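Protein chain data
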Amino acid sequence: MKSIKNHISLVLALTSILFAIQTLIVTHRALEAYEKNLKTNYSIVVVSDKVLNEKTLKSKSSLIESVEDIEVDDAIKRIDSSISKNNLELLKLSLPDFYKLTLSKYPTPSEIKQLKKQLKTLSGVKKIEDFKTSYDTSYKLLTLFGTVVTVFSVVVFVITSLLILKELRIWQYIHKDRMNIMGLFGAPKWLSSAVLFRLAIIDAVISSFLVFIAYAFIKNSDWLGEKLSTVGIDIEIFDFVNDFPILFVAAVLLSILLATAIAFSHKEEV
């Protein structure tokens, strides 16, 4: 009965670590998708007294992906429909040119600052609108969310790793007589501690499949997918081809590493 409890404790500890790893993977995908949406919707507007072409603007920074002229005809017509055609043409000529810059990625605040500095060196540029208020809010929330999830995953990893070490030490104590006898007869550490490695690998396999089943259920229930879709994020919650091998290898390697640490810390008693 005690043996079964130790098995369950080790499986639960490994499962917690794998859940943390998969949560980190899903969060990373969600942040990438959200950042991509922000990048698509984010742009910088440049106001210039002189005509600027796309090549000139792109030469200032590799961040600039495309340049689009902003037409002001409709805006002028809305000012006053009674304005004569000639006056409208004169007004149009007196207005500066507007350019919408789309970026190749969602920039950091320092990259925006550097980009604005480079654009201001162009002759004729009067103003650069980077929509700082809304941008800063989105970027800080994005960074904060990623940091919180990462810290949480690291804490779970450390605590559960200590728990796994404790469980393996219990198994070491249970089989210490067998390990001592084999050690006295010259058996290498890995052989005398074979029971630890077997336990670690079996429980790692069980944990991997438990996490696979749990995330397959979450994926098929569409619960998390619906929550993400409300903020415009469409990602793969669990990819069996890519995610399962990562979880399986992580579980086995961690188990073997901790079992090795326990095995080599054991000293035979005469």
In short: The mean pLDDT is 75.
